[in-house]
Write a structure and sequence with these properties.
The chain has about 210 residues and is mainly alpha-helical. The chain contains ten helices and two strands; from the N terminus they run αααααααααββα.
């Protein structure tokens, strides 16, 4: 597995070098030690997270990986240091390296670039947790069933966000991006675009042994 990861990181470094380096270093700029450190931190996070995802999936590096896709991911993720956003880029990079990149679309890069960390959190909750918030058997039979489930989901979401405004801002942002649709307040579902984005960008590589 160490050889596999070394191969993956070698591929990343070779493509980065062949394309002139990360975007922020491919143009002339005044040297800034603090900026360099921040950029280096982002790169290290991306590579470490990518490495971990490949190890966890027990998936081989593809011989038919797309250098162009890897290059685009590196370019668009350059300078990103927030863990939640870096994690999305690492998912894509790991999939590109292992050949699980058939559903990666350039529009997804643009969407990730527009996400705040809270938006990424909300996408993750809608995709993996929100549908599990259910009512008791008695409440299921209530005429107020719809309003009760909305209230219960709202309360669940507010345990994940610092306040209602932060949650509302993320819901609005993801609606505007076409990721989420609302069927009443806090009854959130993915749009068709959102389903594809979540499956491609947010879910890990499927193990070859799964």
């Amino acid at each position: 597995m160490n050889d596999l990861v070394s191969t993956a990181l070698d591929i990343v470094h070779q493509i980065d070098a062949a394309t002139g380096g990360f975007a922020s270093h491919s143009v002339e700029r005044v040297a800034d030690g603090l900026l360099d450190k921040a950029l280096q931190k982002g790169r290290e996070k991306l590579l470490h997270k990518t490495r971990d995802k490949i190890i966890q999936s027990k998936t081989e590096i593809s011989e038919d990986y797309s250098a162009r896709t890897i290059s685009e991911i590196l370019k668009h993720s350059d300078g990103v240091t927030n863990d939640k956003i870096v994690d999305l880029w690492a998912n894509l990079l790991a999939k590109a390296l292992t050949g699980d990149d058939h559903s990666i679309r350039p529009m997804y890069y643009e969407i990730i670039e527009k996400l705040a960390p809270e938006d990424a959190l909300l996408i993750s909750i809608v995709g993996s947790e929100l549908s599990s918030v259910r009512l008791s058997a008695q409440d299921e039979r209530s005429p107020r069933h719809a309003s009760l489930i909305r209230e219960k989901r709202k309360q669940y979401l507010l345990t994940k966000f610092k306040d209602e405004n932060a949650l509302s801002f993320s819901i609005d942002a993801l609606e505007r991006l076409g990721i989420l649709t609302k069927r009443g307040d806090y009854n959130l579902e993915f749009s068709i675009l959102g389903k594809g984005f979540y499956t491609t960008v947010c879910t890990p590589i499927l193990s070859e042994k799964s």
